[in-house]
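Model: Ready when you are.
Researcher: Fold this.
Model:
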Amino acid sequence: MVFLLLLVRLSKPFRSTASWMEYVQDDFYYYLKVAQNIAHGNGSTFNGIVPTNGYHPLWEALFVCVSLFTSRPHAILAVQASMIFLATLATFLLSLRLFRMQKVRPLTGLAFSLWVALYSLRIFVQGMEVTLTVPLILGLVLVALRTEYWLRGFLQSLSFGLLAAATVLSRLDSSILVALLGAGLLSQAEIRNRLRPAHIAGVTLGLMPVLLYFISNEHQFHTLLPVSGMAKQLKLGLSPSLAPWRIMNLNRPGYFLVFLPIPLALAVFPWAARYLSRVQRVVYGAVLIFPFIYFSILSLRSDWPSWGWYLYSLRTGECVSLLLFCSLPPLRKFFQRTTVTCALLLLFLAGWAIWKWPVQTPELYAASMDLAKFASTHHGIYAMGDRSGSAGYLIADPLIQTEGLMMDRAYLDQLRSGRPLKEILNRYHVRYYIGSSQAPLDGCFQAIEPSQAGPASPHLTDRFCGKPVAAFVHDGRYTYVYDLTD
């Protein structure tokens, strides 16, 4: 019944008067535009000019396959809705399986699994690659715990390696978790003693897609990592930045209470460990410390803010936290009391009942529609930084992504140079520059690219003092278009 209700809720955009584009995040359209260019034979490019690898490959490959058959907006949204549904269902079933392995009372496991699925659904609806990553990580945890399976023979080890590779290719920074899991499993003498050449060969062969991805990156784009990640990690020095951490909103009670189980689970880990097998200790421990290692690395390498889908590590961490609590006899007994279980079940069912697929930043898509209408009569090369996903998707003319997310290594070198923005735009023969602000124009427009980056990152700056050839305002957000030939 819960998942039938979810199907009904996911059909909302098809019955709504709102644009289909308002139901996913702006960054999804970077994926979609590149996918359509690849499918139509124009290469891996966002703007038709600069080859780019600014995406996570598995999610990109999915929409390349879709784009080979259709470019119809509602068909694309139907694929998104299907992926959200399947990912939520898989997250629920995999969580339920993990609770059963922990020998948790079925009704208690059902309640907790519904919560993990609902908590994950909140980021799945953003339309980003973590829709694949969360269920893949849970599947990887499940297989890692079943050593009797993946140490059975070559084919089983191969499937384990392929699952790890799929996890990494769905979201490349999940390689940190895969490395933690690998190191933890190999630290166990029991596992090392059971390893045979066939097992090592199977896992190694299964991981080959990751190696092939890096090789193809170096060959085609002259960089191992996606340029979108590199663009956000140009910060000078290694002094920690708080910007990536702020997405957790720990000053808000609701966010803090959802985050709290993970540090609590780490705090009680030494006591819970005595009730866990050695493999459970290393697997659960890896998943629990992964969010902190991940955001610590981000804070050292970047002073960009994080976005909602960056919190995918908290979803899997939440599941493992609940598993850990259920391994402690006093907490296990408490959670499995009928009154507590029923209360949790009713609470989580209420969450499902009130959930709706939210409209996301409608003013951004309204501005993008205005820009597309303007571009239909004003042709030339455009340039835009923040909020350019949907605009770049809708505008038929090329658009230079001035943050560097959809550019290449050469552009990042120019970004580091600190030259005037207009000089860089001139190199790409840009005619129209698009800027936005949260206040009306008062004199010259001060452009800072990338605008989201913090003070420790390099920026391209310039002033646009002429009258904009177009100006749009939606919900207090101002968008200006400047003709650089004026």
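Researcher: Now this one.
Model:
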Amino acid sequence: MFKNRKAVSPVIATVILVAVAITISVAVAYWMGGISSQYTKFEKVEVSSAVCQADTGGWNITLKLKNTGTAQATLKNVFINDFEVIYDDSAIAVVPGQAVADFSSTTGLSMSSGANATVILYISNTYKSYSAGTTLNVKFHSAGGMDYLKLIELV
């Protein structure tokens, strides 16, 4: 007596199965995205601008930095053409602006995620025989082992 009756048509059953599968996959994707963001924090510092201005005794180089990563970045060292900036050297001065600490301290220059900083390098014209037209490779080294480079031409 009940052999000729169907419970649900095959088309309706397929639609229901596809809808359930899509709903579950979207829920799992949101869940995995939330978990992965906790473990994938990274630092990324961008040198947004570099301006070199000639002075009577040398050059003032103003670098604007921004941490575009999701974790705090701590810049520990500055290198010019692969020579580390020595802070006792009167030929080079590093002046951080809008910064928490300066490079000569043990903590370095800390930048939280989304933070901006301005670093001013002063290079005398007698330092390492640099002259106008020389291209400098300025490199910031972070506590996380990353290097951030900017090429600057002395004017």
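Researcher: Key takeaway?
Model: The two ends are 97 Å apart (CA to CA).
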